[in-house]
Amino acid sequence: MTPKGNRQSEAANSNSVPPKKRRSRLGVAVLIIAVIAIGVGIYLGIRGRVDAETRLAQVTEDAAVPTVNVIHPDAGAPNEEIALPGNTQAFTDTPIYARTSGYLRRWAFDIGAHVKAGDLLAEIDTPEVDEQLRQARADLSTADANLKLADVTAKRTEELLTTRAVSTQERDNAVGAFTADRAIVASKQADVARLERLQSYEKVYAPFDGIITARNTDIGALIDAGAGAPARELFHLSATDKLRVFVAVPEAYSRAAHPGATAAVTLDEFPGETFQGTLVRTANAIDPSSRTLLVEVDVDNADGRLLPGAYAFVHLKLEKEIHSVTVPSNTLIFRKEGLRVAVVRNGQADLVPVAIGRDYGDKVEVVSGLQPDDSVILDPSDSLISGTPIRTGNPPPAGSAQ
After folding, report:
1. What is the number of domains present in the chain?
2. To which H or E segment does residue 203 belong?
3. Which of 62, 139, 188, 259 has the most CB atoms at less than 10 Å from its CB?
4. What is the CATH number of the domain that holds 339?
5. For the segment 239-248, what is each residue's pLDDT rounded down to a tens digit?
6. pLDDT in tens, 302-343
């Protein structure tokens, strides 16, 4: 059969298939394709949801790790000295009281007067003491007369005993009377000396060179030496040629305070001017209540420009052995255990205790607990604890997790 005959035969066979059967086959094919498409869609949907959940878990986990900014502490302090507040005091400062009672007869110097040691400040009228002294002197004269008579009697009795004109007992009585009268004379002499000394206190003298800073009495005022009531000071005398400045040095800087060191003193009433002082002594003990060391700095004040009681600042040079760093104030964490600073170590936060030196406002000096190579967290959260995972860098923008 020829090829043309074969094609005609196949066409005749295909035309012989019923149309209903052809539609059935086409429906099965479409159904298979639809099932495959649905399966592929379901698979892709499940796969997408799994991937989305995985990404969400990763984003959530990443968001749970806080991202913080860190800085490195600056080595050393902004300056190499420490300024501490203190009060100036007169080198010698004393109240002057009366040692005898009476009435003030006169006074010679008022407040602000410069006096020398031995200058007469005031005189007190003491009539009772004067009368007691006259009586004591009269008693002393009587005792002297009795002593002379007892001396003569004792000597005469001793001579008569050699002739047996008196008994030994009479001689012993005469000698005993002489001894007793001599003791009475000594007692009267001491009484007179006491009253004379008391009478000498009628004149009040300046015990040292200085300035009268207070006068608390006037002419005619009753002066009580304290026998019946608390004594009241007559004058207050201060020696201001040299001033003492007492300051409390924090324990962390106690090594910088050693006798012989120079110290600069500044006062608000003398802006831009510095007075040189010398650290002369320390308490050699830390005050347990304030954790400070009491230090005395002496300042020469021969010209009298500085006034006792003035508020001053003492500048002490720091020892090079004192190592410290400075960090911003917003790195500090206040906990009940004490002051802490958060640093990043091995990807985790570590809260380390620190000791603070000087406060510069926006910065503070840390004298122990930190090293210059530590990564210190800025603005740490109040809930931050040691061991919290930390990521360093700039914080992510708001809404980036979404």
Report:
1. 3
2. strand 203-205
3. 188
4. 2.40.420.20
5. 999 999 999 9
6. 988 999 999 999 998 876 555 778 899 888 888 888 888 889
Residue 179: domain span: 99-215
Q: Is the pLDDT of residue 211 over 70?
A: yes
Q: Are residues 325 and 370 in contact, defined by beta-carbon separation less than 8 angstroms?
A: yes
Residue whose token pair is 């200058």:
119
201 and 150 co-located in one domain: yes
346-386 pLDDT, tens digit each: 888 888 898 887 777 788 888 888 888 888 988 888 888 88
Q: Are strands 391-392 and 67-68 parallel, antiparallel or unpaired?
A: parallel
Residues 23 and 52 occupy one common structural domain: yes
Strand partners, 96: 235
Distance CA 80, CA 318 (A): 6
What the block records as the tokens of 265 is 């003193």
Q: How far is CA 78 from CA 221, 312, 323, 366, 376, in A?
A: 60, 22, 12, 12, 19
- CA distances to 12, 148, 151, 168 from 158, rounded to whole Å, are 196, 15, 11, 9
Q: Cα–Cα distance between 109 and 119 in angstroms, integer?
A: 9
Which residue type does 204 have?
Answer: V
pTM of this prediction exceeds 0.85: no
